[in-house]
C-alpha cells in the first residue's frame, strides 16, 4: 500500500511539474531578449563574443550553473572555479542544440523544457519528472 501511495504522489508531482514548467516557459518567452528555437529551447544571450563555435561532436570546456525552476542548484562550476570538460553529443538534447550556437567566450542562459532534458522519468531524486531546467553557461574553450 505504501508503494502505491508513493507512486501516486510521484504521478501527481510529475503532472504538477509539467503544468508549472509549461506555465513558466509560456511567461518566460514573453520577456525581453528571450529567444526560442523551433524545438522549444529558450535562451538569452548574456554576453556574445566573436569566434569559433563548437559542433555536435566536439569536446568543450564550459562553466555552468544548472538549476531547477525552484532555485535548487544541481551543479555550479562557477562557484568551484573549475570548468567541466564535456562531449556535446553526450549532453541532454537541449544543450546539444544550444551549445553549438555559442562562440568561445560567450555566455548564454538556457531554459530547457523537460522533453529536451530528462523528460517524464527525471533522474531519481535529483531531477524530478517533467522538470524544466535552467542553465547559465559560458563556453570557455573548444578542446
TrEMBL record:
Keywords: Isomerase, Rotamase. Residues 1-10 have a biased composition (Basic residues). InterPro entries: PPIase_dom_sf (IPR046357), PPIase_FKBP_dom (IPR001179), PPIase_FKBP_N (IPR000774). It holds the Pfam family FKBP_N. It comes from the Bacteria. One of its GO terms (biological process) is protein folding. It catalyses: [protein]-peptidylproline (omega=180) = [protein]-peptidylproline (omega=0). Residues 57-143 form the PPIase FKBP-type domain. Its EC number is 5.2.1.8. Residues 1-33 are annotated as: Disordered. GO terms for molecular function: peptidyl-prolyl cis-trans isomerase activity. Belongs to the FKBP-type PPIase family. This is Peptidyl-prolyl cis-trans isomerase. It comes from Draconibacterium halophilum.
Amino acid at each position: 500500500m505504501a508503494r502505491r501511495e508513493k507512486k501516486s504522489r510521484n504521478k501527481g508531482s510529475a503532472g504538477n511539474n509539467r503544468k508549472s514548467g509549461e506555465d513558466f516557459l509560456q511567461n518566460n518567452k514573453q520577456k525581453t531578449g528571450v529567444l526560442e528555437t523551433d524545438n522549444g529551447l529558450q535562451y538569452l544571450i548574456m554576453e556574445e563574443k566573436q569566434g569559433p563555435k563548437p559542433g555536435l561532436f566536439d569536446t568543450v570546456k564550459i562553466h555552468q550553473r544548472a538549476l531547477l525552476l525552484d532555485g535548487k542548484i544541481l551543479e555550479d562550476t562557477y562557484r568551484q572555479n573549475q570548468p567541466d570538460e564535456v562531449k556535446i553529443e553526450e549532453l541532454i538534447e537541449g544543450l546539444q542544440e544550444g551549445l553549438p550556437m555559442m562562440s568561445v567566450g560567450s555566455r548564454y542562459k538556457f531554459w530547457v523544457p523537460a522533453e529536451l532534458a530528462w523528460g517524464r522519468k527525471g533522474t531519481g531524486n535529483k531531477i524530478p519528472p517533467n522538470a524544466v531546467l535552467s542553465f547559465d553557461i559560458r563556453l570557455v574553450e573548444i578542446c
